Amino acid sequence: MKFPVTQRFWTWFTRPLLLIGLLLTIPAFYLVLGGTTDVAELAGRTLYAAAALLMLVDTGLQWQKNRSQKRRSGKLILDGMIITGCLLSVIFTGEASGTLEWVLRLALVAVILLRLATLVLQHMKPSHLVQMIVLALLMLCSAGAGFYWLEPNVHSYANGVWLAFTTIATVGYGDIVPSTPASKIFAVFIVLLGYAMFSIVTANIAALFVEEEEANLEKQLHADIRHLSREVAALRDELRSRDRLFLEREKAREPRQGAQTE
Question: Which of 21, 56, 96, 211 has its CA 20 to 30 A from that of 158?
Answer without folding.
Answer: 21
